[in-house]
Amino acid sequence: MRRRSTYLLLFAILAGAAALYLPTLRYEAIWDTRDFLKNSILLTQERPLADAFKSGYIYGQFGMDNQSMYYRPLVTLSFMLEKRLWGLSPATLRATNIFIFLSLLVTLFVLIRTWGGSHFAALAATALFAVSPINAGNVTWVVGRGDLMMLLWGTITLILLRKGKNRGIWVIPVAWISFTLAVLSKETALFFIPLFLLADPPGTKWRQRVHHFGFLGIGAAFLAVKHLLLGIGSLRILISPNLLDYPVRGLSVLGHYAGVLLLPFHPPLFNFITEVETPEHLIGGILVVLVAMVAAVWAFNSSQHEHLRMPTTMIVTFLAPFIALSLTAMWPFSLSTRYMMAASVGVFWLLARGIERLPGLPRYVILPAILLIFLPATIDHNTAHRDELTYWQRALEDHPANPVITLKLAGTLYRKKNDLEAYALLQRNQGMRVERLTFQNQRLLLAKLELERFDYTATLKHLETAEPLIPSNAFEAELLRSRIAAARGNPDEAYSRLQKLIHQAPRRSEPHVLLHRLLTGRRNWPAALEAEKAARLALGNRASWNTADMARRFKEMSSLEKVGFYLDHHNPLAAAALLKSLDLEDNLDNRLLSAWIDFQAGRDDLAKEKVRQAGAVFSEPADHARIARFFLDHMKQPETAITWYRLALTRQDNPQWKKRVAGLQALVHNDK
Description:
This protein is mostly helical. It has helices at about 5-20, 30-40, 40-45, 75-85, 90-115, 120-130, 135-140, 145-165, 170-185, 195-200, 210-230, 245-260, 275, 280-300, 310-325, 340-355, 360-385, 390-400, 405-415, 420-425, 435-450, 455-465, 470-485, 490-505, 510-520, 525-540, 545-555, 560-570, 570-580, 590-600, 605-615, 620-635, 640-650, 655-670, and strands at about 270, 335.
């Protein structure tokens, strides 16, 4: 194959990969990406670029360093640089991911050519890797950038070692730098170290391999900085009383991942340990171990097979850490298709070499056929990332009634203000056996939903049932308790809880916001001004309120506007007192407003009596339908809404009300 034709085909592969992923630029930021853009102190504040190297990944950026388990400063630095250069948006972040992916395709082509692969083999492996659905998650999901960067820099290091050995003393220091960048992108780059030995020509003496100690030193320095200097921990290994559990789980996970790598035609977004611990996967894992042993002996027993050592070792080396990951307490997705990105390089490398050995016609039929089979699954994976609701709905299709997926989908519905469906989904999990952390998160979300229904007793009951809580959930629980204390007229208790949270995590915005609302809702303007100053020191531009302007505008508000102000600032008792002092017209809307304020103040009995009296005075069917809408829209209580709709239907046949009752009954049925 001529060089010009090779480059044209490589360009065609790059153009095709770009076209495959360009539609994702319109997609929303989902899951961890959304959290980073909204809550990361390194991305929401003007912080020095050096801070990327001082903070743990995820929790460390959210003001809770003691919970961080990962250290990936280069990924964080890339986000910070993007913010400075052109601002952060889902489109630009994904565009950068696509650019890194295209760069990775080029280095993959060069890597295979460097290892003696033909133009056809290099192009075939690059094309398979470009279209594979295994890689879709890392390209489309913005925080998958860590895998892309890790593999890019690791591949460059291999190329430098293999191709640059005789090109000057500068090659080794550059390779060390490249490997350092890989490790700072993602911890699994450490598993490149065994691969670097294969870059040495056969027969190389150990005294000529002294530079490999540099790679070991880089790995040791990374771990020292992470654990000793920054105090960032690692994932906890699950302790099982039955030692047989470890090999059974490991072999089952190996069987699962072998299926993903060998038949990646429609892999799931992720999977669960309980779903792969089956006899089929266990037998598959055992077979993989046997085949791997035979392949290793075959590849390393003769110099004729030296070109197969790198892809074979790459598969084994990058399978091992993610099998070990299944033995940790990582929640809940310790199995994910996207983890197989590095291992898939070896698989497609070997597959391309196998296709190359076929006669001309089968070779040029089989390769396009595989690519065409990959395309629908990759497009489907990309489409699943369109928005968070689509993502979790797609996940629920893969794992029907799975409690973890149900919880994630319910959380998404809650964030999108669809409390009724979120509540109904969570009820599906009731009575099911779930892991402790899943149970905690269920109860925490149920508590938030009950708070939206102003059922403070149920909220506190859910929180108490979930205890003892992990630190991040305990933080969320204290926020809810402080809101309840404020609503029930216990501002001192709310103030004390919020101050403790601010002391615990001064860079988290939520307690600062609630504290400021607590103080302004009681018109304690001097204290609110001090809280604003403290928040600005801790949060920077995330503390966007203006206490002095708020106090001025409050004086200019009408009485009803002040009622709304008190409600927005968690002081329903003041809102109730002010509303009672007003000479308002006696109509259904005003009575329901008064009842709604009492519900928010935790005076349920008084509020229910006001609604009952309102329904007795304003007894027309349309009035009862309006009360039903009140319980549906404001109280998030479909059961009570059904009761009032049925009462209205006893006196007036209304098809619209009947349709609404049927829909609510279906929702409540799922509820139960």
